[in-house]
Amino acid sequence: MPLILPGNVASATAATTYSIANSCRFNYADDPYLSFTPSSAMDTKKWTISFWIKKADITESTSGTRVIGFNDGSNEDFVEFFYDPAYDVLKFDAGDGRLVTNRIFRDSAAWYHIVAVWDSANATAGNRMRLYVNGVEETSFATDTNPSLNDDAAIGGTGSPIWIGGDETSRNIKGYLAEIAMCDGQAYAASDFGEFDEDSPTIWKPKDISGLTFGTSGFWLDFEDSSALGNDVSGNNNDFAVTSGLLAVDQATDTPTNSFCTINPLDNYYAASTFSEGNCKIVTNSSNRTWNTGTIGLTAGLWYWEVKATEMSSDYQLFGISDIVSTSTTRQLGQDTYSYGLNGDNGTIYNNSSSSSADWEEIAQGDIIGHYLDLDNNKMYWAKNGTVMNSGTGFSITAAASTGTGFYLPAFGEYAASDTLTAEANFGGCSAFTVSSAVADANGYGAFEYDPSSGTFDSASKDFLAICTKNLGSDGG
Q1: Cα-Cα-Cα-Cα dihedral of 314, 319, 324, 325, to 10°?
Q2: Cα–Cα distance for residue pair 125/269, rounded to 1 Å
Q3: Nearest-5° angle of CA 303, CA 309, CA 312?
Q4: pLDDT per residue over 220-279, tens digit each?
Q5: Span 140-174, pLDDT tens digits
Q6: N or C: which end of the chain has fewer CB within 10 A?
Q7: Pairwise CA distance, residues 271 & 194, whole Å
Q8: Which H or E run includes 473?
Q9: What phi and psi, each to the nearest 5 degrees, are found at residue 368?
Q10: Other CB atoms within 10 A of residue 117 CB
């Protein structure tokens, strides 16, 4: 079982009888959000909001980033990530009440489950607003203002929309949302939406919510229809309108029950790259030379991912693996003992500050580089637009167990300080570039441009897998 992170990446490795098939990717630059205007009044004194979120950034704007909200023209109710008293705290506003956590939420590799309960008719003041994170009620708040008894929330009126993923003032989120539900007239607990795994009781996982009462104006968005991402499956048909910033390609299989690798924004201090598309796309900085890494470290097994060299200021770009995150603005991928990079300019492999013979291939702008990491035989292979390079002969690497960290991370970056690279990654959960073929791995996970099992590797056939938590649980890690 992988390490349980501060968020909830481990929920995707726990045994479960209920799986979430899809999430929706919200890319801030596209101004994405969903909106729904209730046709009848909701219960202004009692409702519950539940959602799963995988955040894609670690510093929010000073206007906050709104997951769900309602504005009746004079009052607002919302759940958002906020900047005061620290960036990335969780804030719940409703009626004349407010909760702001002391805890911050900066894990971009994990899924968080958030439940916000409004119950202003409750005789106990401290129970009129409640927040749960991964099944546990939050009790430490920087702001803890109880609403007055029988206070009316703004959510509940008609004629004004409920927004998900942002609003018309561009407080849009960056990341993935799954299983968004609102239960009108109900004060549910977190245990109505999820449960702790019986074998690993610190792991919180989702459960089927189809039996809950959603009320007249409640809803449940599961994002399983890519042509109608705002489709309400609660039975109420309270469908949300979709802005032009959300497209069918934003439907993802990166979910709380199967979390995929993405590019890690926590490893960006030296690189200073710009992240987008749910942390599957970066634009590197033109004044340094270093690399960015993926969120999941690998110790064993056979793994596959794709990177498209969308824009390159020169061919001097490096694509490969590293056992460590970036350590300097003047150090390239492949300069260290346990990092390896295919040099797009001359078709050599750069490792330990030395270059191999030019038996590989040069990379041009627009090429898709397939990465095949075999940690059972300690070999690395690369492909160019679906064809394995070097006639399928792999490059020998040091066993992960013998590196300084004991694992390898997907990595890519620039060779020279003046270079820039726009790299669009596809780890299988939600590609940054358009995928036409959507090929899954041998276990049925991921959607790739090219088949992870196509080709011969040192004269053998091998099934390389997407880097996702369901594969980690069964095929190494």
Answers
A1: 50
A2: 44
A3: 145
A4: 999 999 999 999 999 999 999 998 899 999 999 999 999 999 999 999 999 999 999 999
A5: 999 999 999 999 998 866 677 899 998 776 788 99
A6: N
A7: 38
A8: helix 469-475
A9: -105, 120
A10: 25
pLDDT at 3: 29
Q: Hey, which residues does 199 pair with through a beta bridge?
A: none
Distance from C-alpha of 398 to C-alpha of 389, rounded to nearest angstrom: 20
Whether 13 and 472 have beta carbons less than 8 Å apart is answered as yes
Q: Which amino acid is at 371?
A: H
**CA atoms of 472 and 366, how far apart (whole Å):** 30
Residues 84 and 102 sit within 8 Å (Cβ to Cβ): no
Q: What domains, with CATH codes, occur in the chain? A: 9-252 (2.60.120.200), 274-475 (2.60.120.920)
- Give 193-223 pLDDT, tens digit per residue: 999 998 888 899 999 999 999 999 999 999 9
Torsion (CA) 120, 124, 126, 128 in degrees, nearest 10: -20
> What predicted TM-score, i.e. pTM, was given to this entire model?
0.94
Q: Are strands 465-466 and 302-312 parallel, antiparallel or unpaired?
A: parallel
Instruction: Say how far apart CA 369 and CA 305 lie, in whole Å.
Output: 8
Q: Which residues of 213-227 are buried (b: 16+ CB within 10 A; e: fewer)?
A: ebbebbbbbbbeeee
Residue in 421, 455, 448, 445 with CA at minimum distance from that of residue 434 = 448
Q: Could you tell me how many residues make up the chain? A: 477
Q: Give the count of beta carbons closer than 10 Å to the beta carbon of residue 48.
A: 27
Query: 302-313 burial, b if ≥16 CB within 10 A, otherwise e?
Result: bbbbbbbbbebb
CB 230 within 8 A of CB 242: yes
